[in-house]
């Protein structure tokens, strides 16, 4: 079992301005709020410390206050990095170069919520029809209740 304190320390060290906030879940899982500009360095810190085992999935949601992307890792226990971004500027860095398995997860989030992943090699259609011209289907809209 990985030492969650060591993982938390690695995440904190990756961000000199201490903008990464950590909290522990009921089952010993680690949750980290990571600013968009610190996502890549946070993941690099986990990789460099040898803590990275598996990117389980990337999920996302429209909270009504903005968009949230959740990066779910399995390191003997769950580690979730949450990144928030405004709808008006929904751009996050891609993780594909660090973790190739992030490819389709990022494409799915892009397609369903409209989040751009800067540097992603191919954000083409994955799930929706090629001729889809409506807003992203999971993005909340005022005209739909």
Strand order of the largest sheet: 1-2-5-4-3
What's the CATH superfamily of the domain at 4-94, by name? NADH:ubiquinone oxidoreductase Nqo5 subunit
Fraction of residues in H or I helices: 10-25%
How many β-strands, per DSSP?
7
Low-confidence stretches: none
Total number of helices:
3
Q: Which CATH architecture of the domain at 4-94 would you pick?
A: 2-Layer Sandwich
What is the third-level CATH name, the topology of the domain at 4-94? Beta Polymerase, domain 2
The succession of helices and strands, N to C, reads HEEHEEEEHE
The CATH class designation of the domain at 4-94 is Alpha Beta
Shape estimate: globular
Mean pLDDT metric: 89
Percent in strands: 25-35%
Radius of gyration over C-alpha positions, nearest whole angstrom = 16 Å
Estimated structural class: alpha/beta
> What is the CA-CA span between the terminal residues?
45 Å
Largest sheet: 5 strands, mixed
């Amino acid at each position: 079992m990985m030492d969650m304190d060591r993982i938390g320390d690695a995440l904190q060290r990756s961000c000199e301005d201490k903008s990464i906030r950590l909290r522990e879940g009921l089952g010993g899982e680690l949750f980290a709020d990571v600013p968009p500009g610190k996502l890549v360095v946070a993941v690099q810190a986990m990789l460099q410390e040898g803590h990275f085992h598996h990117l389980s999935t990337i999920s996302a949601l429209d909270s009504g206050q903005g968009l949230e992307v959740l990066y779910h890792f399995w390191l003997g226990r769950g580690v979730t990095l949450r990144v928030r971004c405004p709808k008006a500027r929904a751009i996050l860095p891609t993780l594909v170069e660090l973790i190739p398995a992030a490819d389709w997860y990022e494409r799915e989030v892009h397609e369903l919520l409209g989040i751009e992943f800067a540097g992603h090699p191919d954000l083409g259609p994955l799930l929706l029809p090629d001729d889809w011209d409506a807003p992203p289907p999971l993005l909340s809209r005022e005209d739909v209740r």
